[in-house]
Amino acid sequence: MINNIWSITKKEIKLFFVSFVAYIILFFFLLVGGYYFYVYIYEVRDAARIMPYFLNFLGFLSFLLTPFITMRVFSEEKRSGTIELLLTSPLKENEIVLGKFLGTLLFYLVYIGFTFYYLIILSAYGKPDFGPIITGYLGFIFLEATYISVGLLISVMTRNQIVSGIVTLIALLFFWIIGWVSSYLPGILADVFSYLSFLNHYEDFTKGIIDTKHIIYYLSIIGLNLFLTIRLLENRKVVV
């Protein structure tokens, strides 16, 4: 099983690296991220606080970019007809989904690797607090994995990449803003919306706080989305 998952993972990573769109997204990610890092340096002027601010911004930037990465994962397979080859191969549906999930996540982590350069800059000119930075990156991985799981679930529902991307963006936007909306709602409804917010669970990580409830939340959302993706793929095995 592990070998099958890894073979799908490697295939996904290779497909991303030959995709022109992926390099456009990488360029945009580095351009916008670098600009805001520069702004934070001159506005905050505190090495211990810059990276937490910056990681919060990366969480927002990634919510905008992730749909453009996940929209092709299953939709393109359906459009080109290659999904039929996958579904009739010895690979199981859960191996296919997990392989694509890991491949997409590992590819996105390459993007994040470029931001380590900012740590070198901060270390050269200041004394950053690496505690919140490490927990912030950990939280970002959980956040991005959650984004990707949502994108895969939506991608498996359609063969149109544009539809997949737009619906994923809307879904992520909903889970991003409900934390803000919760402040205007009464009682238990406010608590529910606040708990479901991707942002509210991410903020503690950027403050140097690792709370198991946040980890459980992200793992639950990821697990649910991947489970539903597997089930949908199984149901579409005959009619694709």
Number of strands: 0
Runs with pLDDT <50, length 5+?
A: none
CA-atom Rg in angstroms: 19 Å
Secondary structural class: mainly alpha
Main sheet record: none
The helix-strand sequence is HHHHHHHHHHHH
Into which percent range does the helicity of residues fall? over 70%
Question: How many helix segments?
Answer: 12
Shape: globular
Percent of residues in beta strands?
Answer: under 5%
Mean pLDDT: 84
Distance between the termini: 24 Å
Number of domains: 1
Structure overview:
With 240 residues, the chain is an all-alpha fold. The protein has one domain (2-235). The chain is 83% helix and 0% strand. It contains twelve helices and no strands. The longest helix has 26 residues, at 130-155. The radius of gyration is 19 Å and the shape is globular. The model has no long low-confidence stretch (mean pLDDT 84).
What's the topology here?
Elements: H1 2-17, H2 20-44, H3 47-70, H4 75-80, H5 82-87, H6 93-113, H7 116-125, H8 130-155, H9 161-182, H10 187-196, H11 198-206, H12 212-235
Helix pairs in contact: 1-6, 2-3, 3-8, 3-9, 3-11, 6-8, 6-12, 8-9, 8-11, 8-12, 9-10
